[in-house]
Description:
The chain is of the alpha/beta class. It has a single domain, classed as Ribokinase (UDP-N-acetylmuramoyl-L-alanine:D-glutamate ligase, 3-Layer(aba) Sandwich), CATH 3.40.1190.20. Helix content is 51%, strand content 14%. It has a nine-stranded mixed beta sheet, sandwiched between helices. Strand 6 (166-170) and strand 7 (174-177) form a beta hairpin. Helix 1 crosses helix 9, helix 2 packs parallel to helix 10 and helix 6 packs across helix 7.
Amino acid sequence: MDLTYQAGALCDVLRDRQPIIHCITNYVTINDCANAALAIGASPIMADSPEEADAVTTHAQALVLNIGQLSPRKLDAMLLAGAQANRMGIPVVLDPVGVGVSALRTSAVRQLLETVHISILRCNRSEAACIYGMHVNQHGIDSDHSISISDGEALARALAARYHCTVALTGETDLVANAFHLYRLEGGHKMLSRVTGMGCIATVLCAAFAAASDDHLPAAIAALGAISAAGEIAFEKAGHLGTGSFHIAVIDALSQMDAQTLSSHLKLTEVSHADTQ
């Protein structure tokens, strides 16, 4: 089946299934994440207490671990929820926000990757480089633009192989890789980078689509394609009004996303191994 069609079709499957997504996520963006999950057809639940994290996970069809606002207590909850998700065989999506900015974040991401099987690693190129062990010029939690697309492609392949997962790298050009394939996704709009939470939303979308598919590669492509398409549609409708209106228009666009809309916006290119060497 054509991958563009397959990824687009997941939009309708997701709305039919209405999966529960347990999100242990960033307080700055938690409301946006919940609204995005609802808009795309999923049902979010946010529980980050260690006393209930594993119990809540038993009701979910996918789990999000986002370290945006990290604490030792929240890490404990993530480890408990991740272990439960692995026992259940449901997808786990990790967003290593700002890994490398502090020893706590770096240690936490290492611990999560070593103890929880991650289905999809959703990050930017700087975060990917840090996880791989490269020196990165940190600028807060934003990506280091000196890391080229070709470097990102090599990192995506390497991390997918190392952690036996699908890697979704977001940036001006998005990259999605597993052990066998690597794809570039073009599109979106630069205004997406001017509104906080769009990366966190992309992570939640990865979990929602993964809950609707047995294959995490098209799920990640659908998720990144959906946020890119929503950005394009939102800019056309509300971009001239400013970032606040654009922000709301992104959620509006996600709420109206269907298979035809998503497929028509996907700009997907497979990259051969030779092209990344």
